Amino acid sequence: MPGILLGDEFPNFEADTTIGRIKFHDFLDKSWGILFSHPKDFTPVCTTELACAASLSDKFAKRGVKMIALSVDSVEDHCGWSKDVMAFNSQASSPLPFPIIADEKRQLATKLGMLDPDEIDVDGIPVTARCVFVIGPDNRLKLSILYPATTGRNFDELLRVIDSLQLTAQKKVATPVNWKPGDKVMVLPNVSDADAATLFPNGVTNKEVPSGKKYLRYTQL
Ligand code: BEZ
């Protein structure tokens, strides 16, 4: 089955994009990256999504995350549609702040498991689903999300998960439900109480539960 799993090295593919031909690892240049696909240029939900992504591009850049989009359309279509996307944001004179990959032959979409069999183009061929890959500075896949063509994504949530990924890459913690930066985090299950006391000088609190097991350990970083 095509696709890519968490921890896999992301393929160093070559592709045509709105900034010319790229080799993906050179494009990333050891930064964090986010590659997100959309079904089709000049469609409504895709336009709202890329406009939102463009409006948040400073926030991705602040986190050191390089952005790149992908669909099965041509570079020419991407360039024309980018103007619509920026006009939708009332920024008609600004360029789209990230490139778009032209995967007209669906080679990448097939290899990475991005096609949506329920959504077909005028020729009856599946288009790309709304797929998100977050890639770490080691070129390995840190997160993937796959939505069907009919459901637009939440790009604020993508910033939130990047905050979690970047934090948990550095500290032996995990982020609980609906966590946001500044909230308490949870000590990883494989960290002993003795190690936790050293690692987390702000202290570790434990939430009591009927089992008596002490696995709900919180700390404030
Ligand atoms: C859209 O972007 O609106 C869209 C594209 C393909 C299928 C469904 C919706």
Automatic annotation (TrEMBL):
E.C. designation(s): 1.11.1.27, 2.3.1.23, 3.1.1.4
Keywords, in A-Z order: Antioxidant, Multifunctional enzyme, Oxidoreductase, Peroxidase, Redox-active center
GO molecular function per UniProt: 1-acylglycerophosphocholine O-acyltransferase activity; peroxiredoxin activity; phospholipase A2 activity
Active site residues of this protein: 46
Catalytic activity from the UniProt record: 1-hexadecanoyl-sn-glycero-3-phosphocholine + hexadecanoyl-CoA = 1,2-dihexadecanoyl-sn-glycero-3-phosphocholine + CoA; a 1,2-diacyl-sn-glycero-3-phosphocholine + H2O = a 1-acyl-sn-glycero-3-phosphocholine + a fatty acid + H(+); 1,2-dihexadecanoyl-sn-glycero-3-phosphocholine + H2O = 1-hexadecanoyl-sn-glycero-3-phosphocholine + hexadecanoate + H(+); a hydroperoxide + 2 glutathione = an alcohol + glutathione disulfide + H2O
Domain annotation Thioredoxin: ranges: 4-167
PROSITE patterns per UniProt: THIOREDOXIN_2 (PS51352)
Keyword Oxidoreductase listed: yes
Coiled-coil residue windows: none
Single GO biological process annotation from the record: cell redox homeostasis
Xref: InterPro entries: AhpC/TSA (IPR000866), Peroxiredoxin_AhpC-typ (IPR024706), Peroxiredoxin_C (IPR019479), PRX_1cys (IPR045020), Thioredoxin-like_sf (IPR036249), Thioredoxin_domain (IPR013766)
GO CC field: cytosol; mitochondrion
Alphabetical list of CDD domains matching this protein: PRX_1cys
Family designation: Belongs to the peroxiredoxin family. Prx6 subfamily.
Functional description taken from the UniProt entry: Thiol-specific peroxidase that catalyzes the reduction of hydrogen peroxide and organic hydroperoxides to water and alcohols, respectively.
Protein name: Peroxiredoxin-6
Record lineage: Eukaryota, Metazoa, Chordata, Craniata, Vertebrata
